[in-house]
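Re: beginner question about structure tokens

> Can someone show what the tokenized structure looks like for a real chain? I only ever see the sequence side.

Sure, here's an example I had lying around. Input first:
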Amino acid sequence: MLRKVDKHSGIPAYIQIVNMIKSEVLLGNLQKGAQLPTIRDLQNIFDVNINTVLKALEKLKAEGYIEAEQGVGYFIKRDVYIDQKIIETIRECVSKLKDDRIDFHTAMLIFEEVWKNG
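And the corresponding structure tokens:
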């Protein structure tokens, strides 16, 4: 879901935008060939300066997630599929972490350690 960036998170706004769009691709909400909203619409959605949107789009282009058609707009270039079973497993894990009152940053530390040593 595309939403306003968190200007107090400490993460640069353009990186937040890149991550939101990547997430939509990974979750299957934006599929190959889908057109992104216009730059002005993205500016309004994210509530950022237009240059921030352009910087994010350039990064996504460089990483191969999107492509630009002159005068038409930006389109999803990469089709990434993640098995829905994996997403459901992650949802269950997150639910359990939240039930146990484990905060996001601690969960990420645990995930990173398990990833490295698993």
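Each token stands for a local structural state, so reading them left to right follows the chain. The two ends are 31 Å apart (CA to CA).
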